[in-house]
Amino acid sequence: MISYANALLYAIPAFMVLVLLEVAYGHFVKNQKYRFFDTLSSLSSGVTNVLKDSLGLAIVLISYPYLSSKLAITEMSDSVVTWVVAFIAIDFAGYWNHRLSHHINIFWNQHVIHHSSEDFNLACALRQSISNVIGYTAVLLLPAALLGVPYSVIAVLGPLHLFGQFWYHTQHIGKLGWLEYILVTPSQHRVHHAINPEYIDKNLGQIFSIWDRLFGTFQEELDEVPPRYGVLKPARTYNPLWINFQHFYNLSVDAWHAERFVDKLRIWFMPTGWRPADVAARYERPIIEDVYTYERYDPNSGVLRKLVVFIQFLLAISLLFYFFAIFSDLENAERMLVGGLIFLMVMGYTSLMDGSKWALAFEALRVVYLVLIYLAYPSVFMALGLPYALLIGLSAVSVTATKWALTDE
Hints:
Elements: H1 2-28, H2 36-54, E1 59-60, H3 64-71, H4 80-103, H5 105-108, H6 112-115, E2 134-135, H7 137-140, H8 142-147, H9 151-163, H10 186-193, H11 210-215, H12 240-257, H13 261-266, H14 277-282, H15 303-325, H16 332-354, H17 358-376, H18 379-384, H19 388-405
Parallel strand pairs: 1-2
């Protein structure tokens, strides 16, 4: 976790610089693909994701080292061939993990946030899940385990494979000729994020496009079918917590209302979007019928609200970077408590972007949270090197600013 936190000190600024460059390019060519609140929502989803991962908030059902130790029929040495085989195995596993996420109800919950933006740009690549708390990816790496690919190689290539999926989230790069037959490109990934009937659940590859061509999920971007982005059951919120668990909540409600016990169980493992017939008849759930006339989520907001949100975002990001800079000096309990503080900050200003009164609730909760930490675990403030009075004072000001900003439309 310490190595991961250190890597993020470089990765996050690099991603943000690239996002800013795309924003600047869009402005220069008068073809902007960013909206202020949607972009902050994407960046904030990335914040919650790296917090969850750095704090190790997941349950691993089975680990790759365990699988490899039990099932390896050979052992690969640390060579160029091993690294190439490992990368192909990771990409193969990534394709099937991605396919499961699109086709099974319960798995869609951990992926829906990545598709929730109704824009398509580099920032939306950072919309990563906090609901993927059950680790099962090792099962999909069975070919690598059988070949005896060392875990050390998998551990290095895994993050690189993930980072390699960032660049193609853009509308400013057209088709790339012969590379379209080898790699996943921006054109192919625009299709993947689109909700047009022609494009739904296509192009599930992550680095290599060969898997889509082999397994029948490839779709070329068509000039006559401009992509429309988002999800067919729109999130209608900028808050990453609601986006992450909205689908899970809907599944839970449907399972509760289902009359047949078997439907209460199978709804979780049926194809994405499936609902028991009796529930669908009694409880309608809106879905986009015409992707070309649908109006994107864009609640009214004035300059004051945008200013307050942006300042709160900068404070949260600053604390996040500082947190990762001193990560190795903190005890586990201190990491959890500081992570919780950053999480509450994100919840506050993303709810404010929605114009929701939840914003005030989260702001007030943060003040109470700081008081409780001071009473029960005051060493956190010493470990942080930040005065308690400063944090509680900023939080109190933030509550007042949020109250004013909620009236600004």
